[in-house]
Give the backbone structure.
Amino acid sequence: MTAPPPPDPREEIAALRAEIAELRARILALENLLGAAAAAAPEEAPPDMVASIEAQEPWGLRPPSGTAEP
């Protein structure tokens, strides 16, 4: 039995160039999405839009009395 012939380097290079072009197009699309999101986002969120830890933990930053510290 003989080993299969090695792949043609020109075909490999062409395939890699095509993959690079596809990745560049995807990066450009993602950059455009990010730019659009950044342009649409308000400069600073109003205080009522800022999440508070108290909404998740009613006792605030300290555990309730009578509980053990982690």
Observations:
- DSSP finds one helix and no strands in the chain.
- The two ends are 66 Å apart (CA to CA).
- The longest helix spans residues 9-40.
